Amino acid sequence: MSGTPVFTKNAAPPAGPYSQAIKTPNAIYCSGQIPCDAEGNLVEGTIQQKTAACIANLKAVLEEAGSSIEKVVKVNIFLTDMANFANMNEEYAKWFVHKPARSCVAVKQLPKAVDVEIECIALP
To answer: CA 81, CA 108: separation in Å to the nearest integer?
Structure first.
């Protein structure tokens, strides 16, 4: 099965040689989004603000692919410090009220030395 690359100028540009998402007939696989604006500038502030920036990027990518946040079925979150877990969840809950399946793991380091990265899978 092959997929169609998705790109939108309304989300952070990829930090490497990959697509923002791949759309298949059955699912949209979004690459991890870090807290950047659409020009690629890192978002500073609280973990809540950084989480919101990641999810806003996912939302823009999903909309470009013809889907939406409400159609997300799986989310993977990467944090560099689990001390940020509760505050990240506070912001996350505002966006994912339908409570998709989710994993959240601590990692040693993320691209561009950010604190959080979020990826997801959605239905078309």
So the answer is: 8
On the 0-12 / 13-18 / 19+ scale of CB atoms within 10 A, 79 is: buried
- Tell me the DSSP string of 46-79: -HHHHHHHHHHHHHHHHHHTT--GGGEEEEEEEE
Helix runs in the chain, H state only? 47-64, 85-95
Q: For residue 123, give the 3-state DSSP assignment.
A: coil
Q: How far apart are CA 42 and CA 26, in angstroms?
A: 32
pLDDT tens digits for the chain (124 residues)?
589 999 999 999 998 999 999 999 999 999 999 999 999 999 999 999 999 999 999 999 999 999 999 999 999 999 999 999 999 999 999 999 999 999 999 999 999 999 999 999 999 9
pTM of the model: 0.96
Q: CA-CA distance, 96 to 69, in Å (whole number)?
A: 7
